[in-house]
Amino acid sequence: MSRRPDRALPDIPSSAARWVKTLPIFLAILGASTLAIFNYQKASSSIVNSTLYALRTSPRAREVLGDEIYFRDKFPWIWGEMNQLHGKIDIQFGVKGKTGSGLMRFRSVRKTRMGYFETQEWSLETEDGRVIQLLEEERKDPFKNTALQAEVKREVLIDNPQLIK
To answer: Rounded to whole angstroms, how far apart are CA atoms 155 and 147?
Structure first.
């Protein structure tokens, strides 16, 4: 097989056409990866771990969901805002147990710069649409670290004895 040296060369596709074809694919992969990374960061945060732990130890949640409470999906999606710096946490995600599943919602705010977070809502919405309030008036907020608060209060009183009445 021999080639003629004076044959016509094949056309080289323009690089603009290649960019037009591959740029949307690249941007879609980049966007999906970014969303997945941020969601993984939310899912592995201490806030989500604490709410799952509190849900597992809540008698009302165990009545509805049963034992072995964990994320509903294999790859959980955490919806909402988790901004500890500005004092706003408002998240929700799917959970399941042995006997049921639902959507857990947690909302907490910090009103002052150096203040504590106050839980405003901690609820569980079941598959049939019932909303179960897990944050009860008679039960203390399970997310408050009362030992830490007592220690801070004690230190403030030691440093400022005039506050003791």
So the answer is: 12
What CA–CA distances, in Å, run from 81 to 10, 62, 66, 125, 129? Answer: 55, 26, 28, 19, 23
At 94, which amino acid appears? G
Backbone Cα Rg of the chain: 27
Residues 59-87 have pLDDT tens digits of 888 989 998 999 999 999 999 999 988 99
Tokens representing 11 are: 């056309």
101: nearest Cα among 66, 132, 65:
65
pTM of model > 0.85: no
CA distance 77 to 99: 21
Taking alpha carbons only, the member of 113, 111, 73, 110 closest to residue 92 is 73
Burial 82-107 (b: 16+ CB within 10 A, else e): beeeebebbbbbbbbbeebbbbbbbb
Which amino acid is it at 100?
Answer: G
Contacts of 145 (CB under 8 A, 6+ apart): none
Q: Is the dihedral of CA 24, 27, 33, 38 positive or negative?
A: negative
